[in-house]
Amino acid sequence: MVQDVLREPAKAVTFLVLDVRPGSEDTARDLLADVAGLTRAVGFRVPDDRLSCVVGIGASLWHRLYRLPVPRGLHPFRGLSGARHTAPATHGDLLFHVRARSLDLCFELVRQVMRRLAGHVNVRDEVQGFKYFDERDLLGFVDGTENPSGPDAVAAVTIGGEDPAYAGGSYVIVQKYLHDLDAWQALPVAEQERVIGRHKLSDIEIPDADKAPNSHVAVTTIVDPDGTERQIVRENMAFGSPAAAEFGTYFIGYAGTPDVIERMLHRMFVGEPPGNHDRILDFSTAVTGSLFFVPTAEFLEDPSPITSHPAASADGSLGIGSLRRSRT
Ligand code: HEM
């Protein structure tokens, strides 16, 4: 069973990125096994508010937690440097993507998680996000429209037969962006629409013939040579502090393989052809970037059914390559 990756858009979110301190692996693994139960306990008090939590595991934590082969697509986030813009890579062992219709539920679940992990983790980032009026981001555009839905969404986010031991899992990339909202708001709306590739009020896409090649929509639309469009599932959230003049978008994208998101990022930051960078970056600075593997809910609760072949551990080695999945 996949974790709760595919949901209707949430109203409130907490993104929590943690590093696990050396020696705290058992505590972290135990907490991961209990996250679904904690989410049920907190969420059941207000079922209509649809609390959910997805947990991702970063590359450098994997071997510290599990004596198992690395999921095929799991590696540290690869930063990017284009001629004008940079996507930094920042460390993260664990991601908690906590969603609900109201922030109190997100807050309470994160509180319960942190109670369990106190003294065992360093907090890299905690961001409380929200949807700005009708599904908009702080640039004022409706965000999420072209997400796939139904079976297309399942196919987009789910690891399949290419990595059988981890089939049903997913990958997630997060990046925190800060906007230069003064510069953005100084642009006429027609120019903002050229940057995004959609109309602002109606959210209707600008036809391909009129769309700027460096618009966000043009740059992030990826089509394979055989004409298949490669999709991801996003759920960006607005965050910020008007008092501190901080205005941001927290990007989160799920995919069955990180390659698709990485290709989008390459097109955004470096450009294809090089130099055709995404104009959204002229008003948005990426300040974090991390990649995580999202195991199935069953794996988190009980990773032991994925066991090493008895012969493999006879010499004390990890037996990577001869590990197999066996459900008992
Ligand atoms: C500053 C951060 C970002 C903002 C404010 C933003 C905003 C938007 C908006 C307003 C749309 C149009 C409506 C929609 O279909 O959702 C969009 C589309 C899209 N964005 Fe972003 N986005 C950001 C970052 C990213 C990143 C980092 C990626 C991928 C690595 C990405 C991938 C996409 C994709 C795939 C689409 C749909 C393109 C299509 O098929 O029409 N976005 N984004």
Automatic annotation (TrEMBL):
The keyword Iron applies. Keywords: Iron, Metal-binding, Oxidoreductase, Peroxidase. InterPro entries: Dimeric_a/b-barrel, Dyp_perox_C, Dyp_perox_N, Dyp_peroxidase. One of its GO terms (cellular component) is cytosol. Residues 304-328 are annotated as: Disordered. GO terms for molecular function: heme binding; metal ion binding; peroxidase activity. The keyword Oxidoreductase applies. Residues 134-298 form the Dyp-type peroxidase C-terminal domain. Belongs to the DyP-type peroxidase family. This is Dyp-type peroxidase. It comes from Kribbella soli.
